[in-house]
Structure formats: C-alpha cells, structure tokens
Amino acid sequence: MPTGSQVQIQEPEVTFEELAQSARKLRKPLLQIPVFRAEKALKFMTPRVGIRVAETVGTLDGDMQFGPYDEDREDNSDVKITPRTLFTYLGSVVKNFRPNTIVQSIWGPSVLHGEGMKNTDLARMVLTMLTRKMGDHLYKELFTAVRNANGDTTHDLFNGFDTIAKTEMTAVAANAQQGIEARAATITEQLGNKVVIEAITKNNAYDVLRSICKAANEHLMDEEELLLFCPKHVVWDYEEDYKTTTGGTAYNREFHKYVIEGFENVTFVPLSCKNGSPFLQLTTKRNMLYGVDQISDKENVEVARFKAFVLQFIATMFFGVQYESIDAERILFATIDGNAAI
Fold first, then answer.
1. Confidence (pLDDT) at 27
2. Do residues 188 and 171 make contact, with C-beta atoms less than 8 angstroms apart?
3. What are the CB-based long-range contacts (under 8 Å, 24+) for 213-220?
4. Mean pLDDT of the chain, nearest integer
5. How many CB atoms lie within 10 A of CB 298?
6. Taking the CB of the first residue and of the last residue of the chain, which one, N or C, has fewer CB atoms within 10 A?
7. Out of 68-77, 97-106, 193-202, 328-337, least confident range
8. Is residue 212 scored above 70 in pLDDT?
9. Entry pTM
10. With contact defined as beta carbons under 8 Å apart, do 293 and 154 qualify?
C-alpha cells in the first residue's frame, strides 16, 4: 500500500459538454454576474430592467396650484415632458480559452485544503470567473465609456455618466453639409445645474465642498438623501482639511458615513471608477439610471468548441446609463473646466 507521500492526486478535467450544459442551465444567473460585480457603484443607482435599445425617461414640467374656490376658473398653461433617452447597447464577447488551464488554478487550493470538487462545480466556477471579468470592466467604465460602434472593448460599448455630462455641457454649431443641427449647452451656470470650482486638495476641500452645496438649487437640497459621486481622494482630502479646520472628524458615527458639515443629507459616494474624473455629481439615487435587459432571449451565454483543447465563451448583453433629468432641481455638476481632473 502506498504511503501518504506516494498518493497521487489526479487533477480533474472539465469537458466541453459539462461547460456547455452549465452555460445553458445557469444562463440567467451568469448574465446577472456582471451587474452584481459592479454593485459597489450600481447600488447607488436605479436599475431599469427589460430595456433593449432605448427607453424614454424624463421629467414632467408644468405648474398647478390651488386657489380660492371658483367653478369657472380654468388653467390652460402647458404641461410638458422634458424627455431623455436611456440607450442600452448590445455588447458581445467571444473569448477563446483553455478550460483545464483555468481548472488547474481552481483545483490547486482545493487540493491543499483536502476538498473534493465535482466537475459540475468546476464548470460553474470556470464560467463564473469569465463573467466576473466582464463586470469588472463595466464598473471601471460607468463614467468614462465613450460609445464607438466600431470599438472592441467595454469602453466603446456605451456613453458613461461623465461622457454624457461633457456632451451636454458643450454647445454645438450647426453644419448643414454634415446634417448637424445647432444645439445649445444644457448644463450651464446660467441654468443652475453647473458650478465651477477649483481643484480639490487637502488644503481646500472643506470650503470647496461646502460651496458646492451652497450653490445647489434649493429644491435639490431639500431632498432627504443626496449623493455626491466623487473620486476617492475627495473624501480623504475633506477628512484632512476638516481636521485642520475644525479639529474634529467628519465621520458621522450615528449613521456610519461621511457627510459634509452643515449638509447632513449629503453623503459621499467615493468610487475608484471616478478617479481622474472632471466632474462631481450631486444628485439622488433615482436620478442615476442604468439600463439592462435580463429578460429576453436576446441576451445569452454559451460555450462552443473552437479547436482541440480550446473552447469559446460567447456572451451577449445590453447595458447603458443615463440621467433621468439634468434639471437644476435634480442634479448639480461641479467641475473645474469640464476637462481637468477634480
């Protein structure tokens, strides 16, 4: 009988058939993994499910009010919707991979811990590993993506929040030859949804961030909970400057969050995907929309045979983001010049 040191542990292999079957069986949860992977940002946003290509969103604009009782009084003022379109774009990936190379990286730690693992579990883990990578890139591009139908990466799939803001902040001149209509900037200081600030450092963060809140529309500031989407350094700089300015700490121990002094309804949302961003967005969760499908058969995950020892992981899914409104009562953009990092 062989001794313990002579026992040979055979690494399992996962077959094409097992991977293909797992992809079919786990299609729905696999398609959800990229969204869950970006949850650290998306949890501060509002999902719109079942959107394929586009959905019109926007705000109702008009006025109506009570007056002294009068049977003959009528109000004929216009009520209009300021529409915005939440586009979701169909993305695809075809990834060639060697499944048993991935299996070896999974199996190694399991052997060390004396664990057994079924091939069906391995198939699930291989597919999960691949779809998680898709989610990592979605998170990184939530603000920075620039739609390019001829591109190859997540950066090209949709227009991110900062990209949309930059477009809305830029006036466009008419060009009849190219079929371009004139468009005025829709994010401006005059409209009240933009404030110009200086670069935030540990020496000025306290005053700059308080000035942003003071510049915001009073109806926006009346919201029960506001979110300030920002690079991580903004929170660190605010904490340092707060200590210098007040001798205290900006952390609210009761609510377990960082808030801006004097504006306790404003919570920081520091995100690594905002590093290098030219904008801070002060708004509500319901105003930050992301669109997915997750319902139709237009989205899919499958595994196909490519050649000996090499398979193809194939996935398609819809994704896009949009502001429900850019009205001053719903959002304030803080920026240096629309380009420089905050």
1. 83
2. no
3. 213/260, 213/262, 213/263, 213/266, 213/282, 215/332, 216/282, 216/328, 216/332, 217/192, 217/193, 217/328, 217/329, 217/332, 219/329, 220/282, 220/283, 220/328, 220/329, 220/330, 220/331, 220/332
4. 84
5. 12
6. N
7. 97-106
8. yes
9. 0.83
10. no
